[in-house]
């Protein structure tokens, strides 16, 4: 019963991770955030692999999923530090999220709740094929939306890591117990040999 509960809980966590990652992938595509797009794609693949391992009782897949979640927590921690400009990270100088290929920022910068976008005409600060805008009236700044999204990803990853380790341990214990009773005995199953004692009786024929 505990194994079933753990598997079901892990599948629910993986489903929430998948929905959150797909939602994030859409908005990162809209904002041309190439580094998060690549990371989200790898995360989606790892979550699907974790779900497959949970359903098919493959504890090695769950170990891979758990290891990836550690890296995923590190990546989202970096995103939080980036948008909060911790240390030497600066949004105005570094375009790490786009691999320094464009000037695009987070999609939420212009489309956040309550944001009013005003284009600045005839601005000399705008490069070719770009325009300068001012954003005002936002109920929540875009960097805090990105931080909140990353915090949710970290929270789900922590729950997923704990349950992945638990379920993989249950799977491994089941395999060990099955081996112990001879399910995968390397010596093979040898049925007991019955010794038959046959007594020969003389055969008399009437002459």
From TrEMBL:
Organism: Poecilia formosa (Amazon molly)
Subunit comment: Interacts with atp1b1 C-terminus.
Name recorded for this polypeptide: Sodium/potassium-transporting ATPase subunit beta-1-interacting protein
PANTHER family, sorted: SODIUM_POTASSIUM-TRANSPORTING ATPASE SUBUNIT BETA-1-INTERACTING PROTEIN 1, T-CELL LYMPHOMA BREAKPOINT-ASSOCIATED TARGET 1-RELATED
Localisation per UniProt entry: Cell membrane
Protein family per UniProt: Belongs to the NKAIN family.
Transmembrane segments: 34-55, 62-86, 147-166
GO BP terms: regulation of sodium ion transport
Keywords: Cell membrane, Glycoprotein, Membrane, Transmembrane, Transmembrane helix
Keyword presence, Cell membrane: yes
InterPro entries per record: Na/K-Atpase_Interacting
UniProt keyword Membrane present: yes
Gene Ontology annotations for the cellular component aspect, listed alphabetically: plasma membrane
Topology within the bilayer: Multi-pass membrane protein
Pfam families, per database record: NKAIN
Chief subcellular location: membrane
